[in-house]
Design brief:
The protein has 192 residues and is an alpha+beta fold. Helix content is 28%, strand content 43%. Strands 1, 2, 3, 4, 5, 6 and 7 form a 7-stranded mixed sheet that branches.
């Protein structure tokens, strides 16, 4: 009789514990889907990426799926001088590791849909990504920087454009000064 009573209590306790776990999971999941939390996530990731890229990053919407997958919609990257650099209709990132304390993000796979990247050079030879390529400040900012690791990149219907202002295009030969490649799809693995 004591064993039977213990078994009943154990099963009842297990059901209550499981119910509490499901309830907490549901509350957490519901809060992640709220407009308030997702607006905070959009602002957090926009600021994080803007600082890391030395550019303005705008994200239209963020969706959080199963705690380790982020979906960004309508992502636009412009230079500090408001020159268009990149955009994508949808970027999905599977997060393997995320630490605010260590400022470290490890991403398993990034999927970019309808992503386009452009480099534009004016007549003076200044490009729209010049802010990324020049480092004038010698202040040690290593303690402020985030470290990103990406293991795999999948692209669907991506494009790349390079345009140099003031150079005439030659229709009969491949023009390296005015290159526009569209419809790129593929996977890059083991990115280090």
């Amino acid at each position: 009789i004591k064993l039977r009573a213990f078994t009943k209590k154990f099963i009842k306790g297990s059901i209550i514990l499981f119910s509490v776990f499901v309830f907490l999971f549901s509350i957490t999941w519901a809060s992640l889907q709220s407009d308030y939390v997702q607006t905070k996530a959009v602002n957090f990731f926009s600021n994080l990426l803007s600082t890391s890229l030395k550019a303005k990053v705008r994200i239209g919407e963020v969706s959080i799926a199963f705690f380790n997958k982020l979906v960004f919609y309508d992502v636009k990257v412009t230079s500090l001088k408001n020159e268009k650099i990149a955009f994508a209709t949808k970027i999905t990132a599977s997060i393997n590791y995320f630490s605010i304390k260590n400022k470290n993000v490890e991403i398993g796979r990034i999927f970019v849909k309808d992503g386009h990247f452009g480099i534009y050079q004016n007549k003076k030879g200044i490009t729209n990504i010049e802010d990324w390529l020049t480092i004038n400040d010698t202040t040690d900012t290593s303690s402020f920087r985030w470290h990103f690791t990406i293991h795999s990149l999948k692209m669907e219907n991506a494009g790349f454009k390079y345009f140099r202002e003031g150079v005439k295009s030659h229709p009969k030969v491949f023009d390296y000064e005015n290159t526009d490649v569209a419809g790129i799809s593929g996977i890059l693995d083991n990115i280090n």
